[in-house]
Amino acid sequence: MNYKLLWEDQFDQDGKPNPEIWTIETGGHGFGNGEQQFYTNREKNIFIKDGILNIVAHKEKYEHLNYTSAKITTEGKKSITNGRVEVVAKVPHGAGTWPAIWFLGNQFKEVGWPSCGEIDLMEHVGHNPNVVHFSLHSKTNYFHIKNQPTKVVKLENIVNEFHEFAMDWEENQITFYLDGKEQETFIKPKDASKEQWPFSQDFYLILNLALGGTWGGLIDDSNFPISFQIKSVKIYERSDLID
């Protein structure tokens, strides 16, 4: 397969993320998982410096919660259907941390989750260090009923070192990679409905650092401030023709 670069962000301008690519989301309603952070747009929670995007969580009283963090998305600005994604990121350590690199279908606000579909390029929970999860969620297969396609990978030094998380997204399959090594391919089931395989539409990218919640678990307050760092995001589209 051949690809050409569709868009990228090398985070080479200090300050806030590029508003032509990213929206900084705010709020603290738990996001369906009982999460304990309030996402803000303050520079102490999200900033670019020396070529690195920093998403920083703090232990502090803010609004009705006791922690702050940040979340950015490309919703309404940049989307992808099929192609290749490469994200270089450094996952933080510490119990209660829950950083993620993930995608939601553009129809999220119309049809809700999980009908819109979700692709998890990387999830890491601090109480299980150096273990990352690659997953797909749909209306018929998602984590509440524990039947989502998931690949769990353990690798020493995942935390506190930069690694490349990548995927090749084709019409009928999605393949995940860690540092260039193939980890798993999830294949569209034969005669799958849109409810089972919603991955034939536009999705947008999300980068965030959640805290606690149903999967993040108990938070170790001794680690703050905590930084989830991203060095680059590259999105490619297919440039070859499928026979």
Count the DSSP helices. 2
Supply the CATH architecture: Sandwich
Mean pLDDT: 95
Termini gap: 11 Å
**Total separate domains:** 1
Question: Which fold name is given in CATH as the topology?
Answer: Jelly Rolls
Order of H and E elements: EEEEEEEEEHEEEEEEEHE
Strand content: over 45%
Tell me about the biggest sheet? 10 strands, mixed
Overall, the morphology is globular
> In CATH's first tier, which class applies?
Mainly Beta
Helix content range: under 10%
Overall SS class: mainly beta
Task: Give a short overview.
The protein has 243 residues and is mostly beta strands. It is built from two helices and 17 strands. The mean pLDDT is 95.
How is the topology of this model organized?
Layout: E1 3-9, E2 23-25, E3 37-39, E4 46-49, E5 52-62, E6 65-69, E7 71-73, E8 83-90, E9 97-105, H1 108-111, E10 118-123, E11 131-137, E12 150-154, E13 162-170, E14 173-178, E15 181-187, E16 203-211, H2 213-216, E17 226-238
Parallel strand pairs: 3-6
Antiparallel strand pairs: 1-17, 2-7, 4-5, 5-6, 5-17, 7-16, 8-13, 8-17, 9-10, 9-16, 10-11, 11-12, 13-14, 14-15
